[in-house]
Amino acid sequence: IPFIMMCTSGYFFISNINSDEETKSEISYVQYYAEVGRREQVTLPDGSKVWLNSGSTLIYPSTFAMAERGVYLNGEGFFEVTKDVEHPFVVNTCFLKMQVLGTTFNISAYPGDNQVKTTLETGALKVSLQNDTAKSYYLKPDDQLVYIPSSNKVECFKVKASDYSDWRMGGLFFNNTDFEKAMQIIERTYGVKVHIRTSVYNKQKIYVHYNKHESLENILHILKLMIPELDYRISGKEVYIE
What we know:
This protein is of the alpha+beta class. About 20% of the residues lie in helices and about 45% in strands. It has four helices and 18 strands. Strands 1, 2, 3, 4, 5, 6, 7, 8, 9, 10, 11, 12 and 13 form a 13-stranded mixed sheet that branches. The longest helix is centred in the first third of the chain and has 16 residues, at about 1-15. The radius of gyration is 19 Å and the shape is globular.
């Protein structure tokens, strides 16, 4: 929570400066957390819908009373935004700012990840860096923007956008994903702790699209079919990779 509030305090402070004292006194902020191993759906005051992936936090005002409908995301979320031409919808993360009028898109911005990704399904999306608001990127459907915080680098790709939001329906998609990163996603999705007891898979890349609501056992069994030398053991909420 301190990390989240550190990232959001500046944004909400600036937003509040532009509102009158009466409005500020009436607005409170809601913090919604999707526990590890769970996915949650949130309906915002304007009717917009947000699906939160496990381990994600959304902060939003109790009412949208300012020029912008601003929210803050820490983690991964899929947004289905209600169109309001006079009040743009803005999603802030620690590194990126997304602005839309009415559209659907996915954002993955977990703290500690080496990449922040936003993927547009429908409509249009304006993306800017929090540390360089002078430059903006305009996304069309099936565009994906990837930001690498360590190098301050931005890359854009053409993808099948629906693959990247399949998690909200219980799916799991690894697209050339590092083995260690894939294990982190499995941890969040199934609420387990994965212990990797070897470095042999450090350079291993995973590309697989799982069916919806696969069991943890099936997830690991399919991984073993892809990597025959992989050995795993499940013990309650602990997974051991040999």
